[in-house]
Amino acid sequence: MTTEDATEPVTIVFSREVKPGHRRVLSTNPRMQKTIGLEIWFELPGLDTSRPPPRWKMWIVTVVMIHPLSLAFQFLVPHLGWMPVPLRALALPVVLVTAMSLAIMPVVTRLLRRWLYPGG
After folding, report:
1. Contact predicate 62/70, CB 8 Å
2. Alpha-carbon span 54 to 100, nearest angstrom
3. Which of 49, 50, 60, 101 has the highest CB neighbour number within 10 Å of its CB?
4. What mean pLDDT is predicted for residues 99-115?
């Protein structure tokens, strides 16, 4: 398989060592790019999102959406006093990531698609 063959699945393994029988490959493929991990929140069905929005736009949308959730969560903290601290500390990321991934970001991304993906 070549790097230009877009129909074949590619497995990328992050490892510092090169195993016997393998070779280290540096890609010059223009379709490959460095990502920050938030891109999955900005995918839209039916729209080519292979090139994510600029990082500053993803940052703005993410902060603006997480802030009210984080603020609302502060009202729940006093009611979680019965929970051990590690469990209480786990509650915020679980609530934030679940709400952002499953409910908030799909809707927000659709609403802001023209700003996030101009000309798309």
Report:
1. no
2. 19
3. 49
4. 90
